[in-house]
Amino acid sequence: MIYLDYQATTPLASEALAAMRPLLEEGFGNPHSPHRMGRAAKAAVELARDRIAAPFGQGGRLLFTGGATEALNWAIKGMADQTGPERPRIVTTAIEHSAVLDTLEWLEGRGHEVIRLPVDAEGIVDLDAARAAIDERTALVAAMLVNNEIGTIQPIAELGAMARAVGAVMLCDASQGYGRVPLPVDSCDLVAVTAHKIHGPKGIGALWLRDDVAPTPLMHGGGQEGGIRSGTLAPALCAGFGAAAELAFERIEADAAHVEALWRQARGLLGEDWLLNGSAERRWHGNLNIRRDGLDVARLMSSLRDIAFSAGSACASGSGKPSRVLKAIGLSDAEARSSIRLGFGRYTTEEEIDRAMTMIREAADRQGAWAA
């Protein structure tokens, strides 16, 4: 199997597995217990926390969650709960992850005003529309750093500056960008991250908070994380996340160079019949979202069972609806339905790209020949 679905999840790094194993075997203590095993587990958790928080610099605090979805729900609902009637507005973009858009739709039904900013054909948010929307009525601005479907990199620094200028809070979903592109920490008040996008384990994420920010708890109980996030932590998952984060930032330049080479190789092998969705430049090049006129994507995927790739977000797979992200950049239903997403990264080889692109191109050519 050639794995080309890095936006959905990434292979577990051997270093992350090695960090997890002792805590799954003999070091299974509860990190919130006062005895020796508990203290040892807590030490592992705090080491992991330091590793994950290191790229954020001095100040702020990082609290563990069950993943980015929880972190985003908590940040949005927790900050909205503190909003007075004079600030009913939340501003986001039309191409956010469902963890953001569905949460905002829920809040909308409870009286909050939600503004969804459009993006251009490149998949970049309209900053003029943002300036018009982000005003003194705005409580929160929420935008993702790197889009999960088309890989475009949003101007978080500019959005954050607009939010700060009117006294609003800036939330960044950095799930796809953490460990890959520079973090715009200075422009943000809350940042959501997750382990399994950077070769860590599934089921663990985190929310970074600026010092003066404390969203209302989403879950109530023991208040284990900073007094505002309840639940017993899994030391093994924390340790795996910490090891993966440390490795990602040690290798950030090498990984980016490797991905860039694979991007150029893949585009060259596919040829001019395949059109790129979204910006070619303002983008993480480990994401190649492309389309070919008349392509039957379901049939293509069925004929290429030895390649793991997708037709869009893993969270929306099987919905039968054309991607709302591709629709937002101006694609027709037919163009959106003829698009595929290829994701690659650290452990993808040039040989795998060569084989996979050749197989995809040939399978699409056969479709075209049969249609003719």
Describe the protein in words.
The chain is globular, with a radius of gyration of 21 Å. The protein has two domains: 15-249, Type I PLP-dependent aspartate aminotransferase-like (Major domain) (Aspartate Aminotransferase, domain 2, 3-Layer(aba) Sandwich); 252-371, Aspartate Aminotransferase, domain 1 (Alpha-Beta Complex), CATH 3.90.1150.10. It has twelve helices and twelve strands. α3 (68-80) runs parallel beside α4 and α8 (252-270) packs parallel to α12. The mean pLDDT is 95. It has a seven-stranded mixed beta sheet with strand order 2-8-7-6-5-3-4, sandwiched between helices. By secondary structure, it is an alpha/beta fold.
Count of helices? 12
Would you tell me the overall average pLDDT? 95
* Number of beta-strand segments: 12
Give the overall shape, derived from the CA principal axes. Answer: globular
How is this structure best summarized?
By secondary structure, the chain is an alpha/beta fold. Helices cover 39% and strands 14% of the residues.
